[in-house]
Write a structure and sequence with these properties.
By secondary structure, the protein is mainly α. Helices cover 74% and strands 2% of the residues. It has a two-stranded antiparallel sheet. α2 crosses α11 and α3 packs parallel to α10. The radius of gyration is 18 Å and the shape is globular.
Length: 284
């Protein structure tokens, strides 16, 4: 495989990852890392480092559109980022100190992918249920308005402490595995905090870039971010996330979540198998 063909294939796969990441709020890292490791035989630490950069690109490509149109709740994002950034730094330090073996990390990643597939396939929109205002959320000014075809509809936020706890766990996974941990972010906002699903996914896209940026610096100082590999990944993800942000208004999200779940389930099985077998996932 020539360098040009390799670059084009990586860019094409990254485009798909960015498109799906923007639509679902899960972040493109859940596709990019196993794609680079399994298909292109990139060492896992380098795949994670490039993925963190691509997650920043995914967030940058989609978040501007979502914020401008009023879908993302910036106040919620800024509050929850305190927990995710702290967790992301903690997870990145664990990797930098080599406290977790590479193959064990691959197995953990596979398990996280399985959980992401399950959560993304069963997500439901809790919007429309009668939810009373939460005193803490009200004091923090977290309640918002969802733009709809019928006009703006107000919603209330609940379960702030539970949401913060889940966000800390999501940050650790982001630092450890090089993903935006969008599944846990969406789960925390949609089910624990009772935020409308479309607001949850768009706010997750807004947040994952900040979480990844907190971890990417650690990988950069360790030399795990290859500019030659990062360039096609970032360009592909940026284009994919741009078109994903445009398509979220018309494409059936339920069908896309099912397709996405099938894809990452397949990749998860491959990652777990290679991790258990000590296969060519990464070189120690």
């Amino acid at each position: 495989m020539t360098v040009l063909v390799f670059t084009l294939l990586v860019a094409a796969g990254s485009f798909l990852a960015g498109f799906l990441g923007a639509l679902t709020g899960l972040g493109g890292g859940v596709v990019i890392v196993p794609m680079l490791v399994v298909v292109f035989r990139v060492d896992l630490p380098f795949a994670i480092g490039v993925s963190l950069v691509s997650v920043i690109a995914t967030s940058s490509g989609a978040a501007a559109s979502y914020v401008r149109e009023g879908y993302s709740n910036v106040r919620i994002a800024m509050l929850l980022e305190i927990a995710t950034t702290t967790g992301g730094l903690f997870g990145a330090v664990l990797v930098a100190l080599a406290l977790i073996p590479t193959h064990a990390l691959s197995i953990i990643f596979g398990v996280v992918l399985l959980v992401s597939a399950y959560l993304s396939s069963r997500q439901h929109d809790s919007f429309g249920q009668k939810v009373q205002p939460d005193p803490l959320a009200t004091r923090l000014g977290l309640d918002g308005v969802l733009p709809t075809e019928q006009g703006p509809l107000p919603y209330h936020v609940r379960g702030v402490p539970m949401g913060l706890g889940l966000m800390f766990v999501a940050g650790i996974l982001s630092g450890l595995l090089g993903i935006g941990s969008g599944a846990l972010k969406v789960l925390a906002m949609d089910q624990a905090m009772r935020i409308p699903f479309k607001v949850s996914t768009t706010t997750s896209n807004f947040m994952i870039g900040v979480t990844a940026a907190a971890s990417a610096g650690v990988y950069l100082t360790r030399g795990y971010i290859d500019p030659g590999l990062a360039l096609p990944v970032v360009l592909g993800v940026l284009l994919g996330s741009f078109f994903g942000a445009k398509a979220i208004r018309s494409l059936p999200a339920r069908a896309l979540r099912i397709v996405f779940s099938i894809v990452i389930f397949t990749l998860a099985v491959q990652m777990i198998y290679n991790g258990l077998a000590g296969g060519p996932i990464a070189h120690e």
